[in-house]
Design brief:
The protein is 11% helix and 28% strand. It is mainly beta. The chain has two domains: 230 residues, Jelly Rolls (Sandwich), CATH 2.60.120; 100 residues, no CATH class. Strands 1, 3, 4, 9, 14, 15, 16 and 18 form an eight-stranded antiparallel sheet that branches. Strands 2, 5, 6, 10, 11, 12, 13 and 17 form an eight-stranded antiparallel sheet that branches. A two-stranded antiparallel sheet has the order 7-8. The radius of gyration is 25 Å and the shape is elongated.
Length: 395
Amino acid sequence: MADFSGEPNLNRSGDAVFSDNKLSLTKNTIGADGVGLNNSIGRAIYPEKFHLWDSLTNTAADFETNFTFTISMLNPPDGADGMAFFIAANNSEPLHPRTLGGCLGLIVNCSDHNVAGLVFVEFDTFSNSRLNDPSENHIGININSGKSVATQTWDERMKNGSEGHARVRYDSKTANLIVFLTYPSLDGSRSLSYPVNLSEVLPEWVVVGFSAATGTLIETHYVLSWGFISSISTELPIPEAESDHGGRGGQNIGAVIGGAVGGSVVLLGSVLIYLRRKREVREAEKNDCDDSIDHEFEHESGPRRLLDVADNKLCMEFDVKQMECLLIVGLWCAYPDYTFRPSIRQALQVLNFEAPLPNLPKKMPIPKYDAPSSSSNSSTGPFLLSDNSLATTGR
């Protein structure tokens, strides 16, 4: 996971600021004008959109986010109201003053149980009777509403400054959203889940981030580190031949990049290629093209090129430069020696033709693996990754 040293690129609004290598979501000091910490709201959003599901392939992303945080009462035993990790429509309303208190900086009217395009996991530190909160301190899953569809109680230690470790995971195959919460310095853990098809409640492209709020009672809300990783199916159907009135269009190629191993960001070989094109060829002509390429490949009579691995159903109807770049970067990311693999920034620069292609060896090197030491401790490196190229931030 990444900490917030260096003030990474997050879109902050309200009272959210970076403070001592942490993301402070609400006010943490009394201002020079004497204004206190009550009635504070803050939000931080990752600037790039997240591709949650794909209308072309009818597939959805699996994702997992991990973050550490603290909530601290300043006037024990009273404190409120909590914080949330959220996924929302890209055109979500900006931060509104009426989202104070139990609305957690997300919903203008907390009693509105029909808010479009909003899913969040709340770490709530105040019991709101109008929201049917189970206890003063609890975690909850919220679907388009300020009222939780699933909850799990905790105790006042949730807001005594202890460091909480949260993991939110979504499995698109089982359509299940799962939340885990542990406090390493305390005994016990909590988890809850809720069956939901996010493709039915959220748009195709969304944003992810954090929000928090206080009302009359006060507390501080810090996010200490954050990691996000996702993957989406790469199975794409070949578009059917369209009307003769259509011309040949261009192609959009995107990359799915993700993974983190032992403190180093490693790009896994998951590549999502979007090939949206219009073809005038008839089905018989397409089959002839397929047979010709297959015959050359099987009898080794055709050219042995990198592009031979491209889908022969495309009949070589793609941007050659883009395809070569994509394949070479894929091989680079899968290099056996991880020290020679590119960083996320390097891979994206090459994919965007902002940097030259790497000079890879003609033959695949023999991988070497060292047996792990039983006494060694692996470290967790910073990552903030997904299929829409969420960039690395942190140490």
